Amino acid sequence: MAALRAGLLGVGAMGRHHARVLREIDGVDLVAIADPGGDRHGVAAPLDVLPDIEALIAAGIDIAVVAVPTAFHEDAALKLADAGVHTLVEKPIAHSIEAGRRMVDAFASRGLVGAVGHVERFNPALQELRSHLEAGDLGEVYQISTRRQSNFPTRIADVGVAKDLASHDIDLTAWVAQSPYASVYAQTAFKSGRSHEDMISVTGRLANGVIVNHIVNWLSPMKERLTVVTGDRGSYVADTSTGDLTFYANGTIPLEWESVSSFRGVSEGDVTRYAFAKREPLRVEHEAFRDAVLGRTSQLVTLEQGQRTLEVVEGALESARTGVPVRF
C-alpha cells in the first residue's frame, strides 16, 4: 500500500515536532509544509515552505496536521474538509464552541477522520494508569486531581491558560475516569498584563460521581505536570513530565504507636514505582491518527471528544466570570 501523503500547516514551536514525527513513522510521507511565517526553526528542508492552506491542499495530500494558532483552526479545517483531507488539529479544537461544532459537522458529513491533538492521552504514565484503573486495581475511584504549572510561554498570544493548558487536564481526566464532566466551578487570575487569564483553579464532578480539581497556571518558576487519582485502595501519581507512575497503597499493617493509631482513616502502605515501555506521546498520537485513516482500531481523540473538552473549558471560564457553577 502506498504511503499516506501528509501535509503540515505550521512549523512553529509545536509544528516542528510534528514535522519530525511525520518523517519517522511508517506508512506516512511528509510531502508538503506551509507556514505564512516561514521556517524559523529550519525544519522544512528539503521541502519548500508553501505560503498558505490553499497551496498545501494543492500539493495533493491525503492527511494534514494543523499546528497554527487556535484562531486559525476553523478556517484551515473547513478548507481541508472541503478538499476531502483527513485532519489532525492541535488542541484546543477551536477558538469557540460554535467554530468547533462547524468543524465536527464538516468532517462527519463527509465521512472524514478528524482528530484533536490532546497528546497527554498518549503519555505512557497515563496510558499505564488507565490500564490499572480499568483492571480495578484501585477499587472505587474517589477523586482525580491535576497540577499543571510553568512559566509564561511567550509564543501563546491568542488564548489563555485555560484553553492552552487546562484543556489537557480536562481531557485526560474524563478519559482516565471514562466519564464526562457533570459540573465545574472555577476562578481565574490575570497577573501578567494580558487580556487572557494566566491562572485558573477548577473544581467539579464527573457524571460517575468522581470529584475533580485542576490547578493550572503560567505563573510558576518550576514546571509541574502531575495527575493524582485517589481511591479505595490508595493513590496513583502520574508524572507526565517524566512518564513515571507510582502507586501509594493504603496500609494493612496495624499501627502500634498510640498517638498515630488514634487518628482515623487510611495509613501509609507500600509504594510501587512501575516499570514499563515509554514511547514518545506525539509519535503514538500520530500512529493512532494514521491507523484511524487506514480503518484500523485506534485510540484517536476525535473531533467530537475535542469539542466536549472545549465545552467544559468554556464552562469553567463562564463560571469564573459569573461566580456560579456550570452544569452539563
From TrEMBL:
Keywords: NAD. InterPro entries: Gfo/Idh/MocA-like_OxRdtase_N, Gfo/Idh/MocA_Oxidoreductases, GFO_IDH_MocA-like_dom, NAD(P)-bd_dom_sf. The keyword Methyltransferase does not apply. SUPFAM superfamilies: Glyceraldehyde-3-phosphate dehydrogenase-like, C-terminal domain, NAD(P)-binding Rossmann-fold domains. Residues 127-236 form the GFO/IDH/MocA-like oxidoreductase domain. GO terms for molecular function: nucleotide binding. Pfam families: GFO_IDH_MocA, GFO_IDH_MocA_C3. Residues 5-118 form the Gfo/Idh/MocA-like oxidoreductase N-terminal domain. The keyword Cell membrane does not apply. It comes from the Bacteria. This is Gfo/Idh/MocA family oxidoreductase. It comes from Agromyces intestinalis.
